[in-house]
Amino acid sequence: MADPKHVFLTGASGFVASQIMAGLVERGYLITASVRTLAKAGQVLALHPSWARQLTFVYVADVAQDGVFDDIFTKAKQPFDYVIHTASPVSFSVTDFQRDLIDPAVQGTVGILQSAHTHGGPQLKRFVLLGSAVSCLDSFQDISVAGKPYTEKDWNPVTAAQAISSRNPVLGYNASKKLAEQAAWSLMESQKPVFDLAVICPDIIIGPMLQPISGPKAVNETNSFAVYNFLNGVYTQIEGLTFPFYHFVDVRDVALAHILALTTPAASGQRILLVAGLISPQLVINTIQKHFPQLHSRVMEGEPAQILPRGNAPTGWDTSLSTEILGGKDWKSIGLEESVVDTVRSLLALEAGWGV
């Protein structure tokens, strides 16, 4: 029997990476997973002790530090067959966009790619990068008029300078994801490593959580603004309530796409868009009201018939190429209703553990 394939997964205590890790374990992969601290590793194993047989932790306190990944490649007991890089900041509360968003995203991505190229060895087949659909959309498009659907060929025109001068954290995040992905493709073109690259580009990611979460304020950014803020008292009225984006994908589909991209030949050199459908504050409210009558006192009713905030006509997505890469008719995205319901159930289970 052939030895199991070995995957290096970064950001392993995160929302998306935890779901990826679950899928890799289920499929028999060996995993070396990076986390920031020994404590994080202990938290992951406390939640998922069965993963320990296939999992080795390494520690990367700062992904932007030069050469920080070198030793992980050179000291690996079994060379890596694949790399999945998910470690990149997702926060809309930072104020220094260059230091806290752009630099970690770009330098972390370039750094691990360079380490993989220099030290990864000839058996390293593919590098899968968690990008974002925000790299493809136009941050400056008139939100009141839907444009031509975005595709994998589109690039966000936002620059670092524009994001920084705007003081808009959404623009800062958009710039960080775009610039990190462009840096990855540039390195692939200039250095031509033995492995190839696939980039997974999801829109708003929601869904059940497998990662360690210490309390209500530690819920990941996207589940917070898209779902949990309706339960925890942050959102109290529908008037003026908007989302930064209006399309979503379930975290389980994001994880599956990463795993399929490891071994799917057609994923080589591709940007893979993940968009399951529309999401809006009112759609989330309507779903919670429908399925969780016990939460009616915690969740406002809003305006059930007003699906999108007034004046919003978000541009759609053409994901036909990406869907074909991931299996065509066999690729079935989890819908919004199922995703929101499972997210709320996950949050309620967490609240019980927190004593909320």
Q: What topology, given as strand order, has the largest sheet?
A: 3-2-1-4-5-6-9
The portion of residues forming beta strands comes to 5-15%
Gross morphology is globular
Ranges where pLDDT stays below 50 over 5 or more residues in a row are none
Number of E-type strands? 10
Number of helices: 11
The chain-level mean pLDDT equals 95
- Rg, rounded, reads 20 Å
The biggest sheet amounts to: 7 strands, parallel
| Percent in helix | 25-40%
Protein described:
By secondary structure, this protein is α/β, with parallel strands linked by helices. The protein has helices at 15-26, 38-47, 70-74, 97-119, 160-166, 169-191, 221-226, 251-263, 281-291, 320-325, 336-354; strands at 6-9, 30-35, 55-59, 82-85, 126-130, 196-202, 204-206, 247-250, 271-274, 277-278. It has a seven-stranded parallel β-sheet with strand order 3-2-1-4-5-6-9, with helices on both faces. It has a three-stranded mixed β-sheet with strand order 7-8-10. The longest helix is centred in the first third of the chain and has 23 residues, at 97-119.
